[in-house]
Amino acid sequence: QVQLGESGGGLVQAGGSLRLSCAASGSFFSINAMGWYRQAPGKQRELVASIIAGGNTNYADSVKDRFTISRDNAKNTVYLQMNSLKPEDTAVYYCNAGVFHPTYGYLERWGRGTLVTVSS
Length: 120
Description:
120 residues; mainly beta; seven-stranded mixed sheet; four-stranded antiparallel sheet; 0% helix; 61% strand
């Protein structure tokens, strides 16, 4: 099976920074897109940022110029550098990846989530 393990969440004051990490482990040939989603209380889960294997990135308008997504293909890891954090960034952040499994083909996997709390 394929698992995603997230780390880096926590409590930070507005204007501060955090860096989230997500590492994929298990059996797979390769990873296609990796991304970060978030879900605030009472709201739907939304895409924050994504990055494909070739390096092209996509960001939600609300985080452009503040967040940066990157990946280390050798470590099967995706990062989210979050700067100039705002209270409205408070949410559970979930890692997402599309992987090619030797037996089951293309699979979409989610991490368990990591809580980011931004105080005003």
